[in-house]
Design goal:
There is one protein chain. The protein is built from 6 helices and 5 strands; from the N terminus they run αβαββαααββα. The strands form 2 sheets. The chain has a 3-stranded mixed sheet with strand order 1-2-3. It is α+β, with helices and mostly antiparallel strands. It has one domain (4-141): CBS-domain, CATH 3.10.580.10.
């Protein structure tokens, strides 16, 4: 069974965080420059929220198309869903679909280990399916025929 820890190993350790008192405009600039869809919001070494393009779009829509002078704290999701490194990929997939979550922080106790995105999940599932397909083809190719003696 594929675990979140294995997906994080393949993904790498790059992680982008911000503080809750950062200006939303600055957070948007970071997300744009780094081509990422989320920022993990940390305060004093603790996860306090997530900022994704979803929160930004809702904020812009409610402010007549402007970001304004708001801080990340004002628009972030302050109760993000999280998983552990030992969570099964199937469970992450189920949670993402049930909660409409595109980004989920991975926590090992109080320690942030990374973020799993919907894209990461799709990539991991496709790779696992390709591996399984190759193994099944190899098994079928090596299937003993009735004429083989043991």
């Amino acid at each position: 069974m594929l675990k979140v820890s294995e997906i994080l190993k393949v993904k790498g350790n790059t992680l982008f965080t911000a503080g809750p008192d950062m200006a939303v405009t600055q957070a948007v600039n970071i997300m744009s420059e780094q081509d990422i869809g989320s920022l993990v919001i940390m305060a004093h070494g603790t996860l306090v929220g997530m900022l994704t393009f979803r929160e930004i779009i809702r904020h812009v829509n409610s402010n007549g198309g402007a970001l304004g002078e708001f801080t990340v704290r004002a628009i972030m999701d302050d109760a993000p869903l999280s998983v552990t490194p030992n969570t099964d990929a199937d469970e992450v997939q189920r949670l993402m679909l049930a909660k409409h979550a595109r980004y989920i922080p991975v926590m090992d106790g109080p320690t942030l280990m990374g973020v799993i995105s919907f894209y990461d999940m799709a990539q991991a599932i496709a790779a696992a399916q390709q591996f399984e397909n190759a193994m099944l083809k190899a098994y079928i190719r090596d299937w003993p025929s009735d004429g083989d003696s043991a």
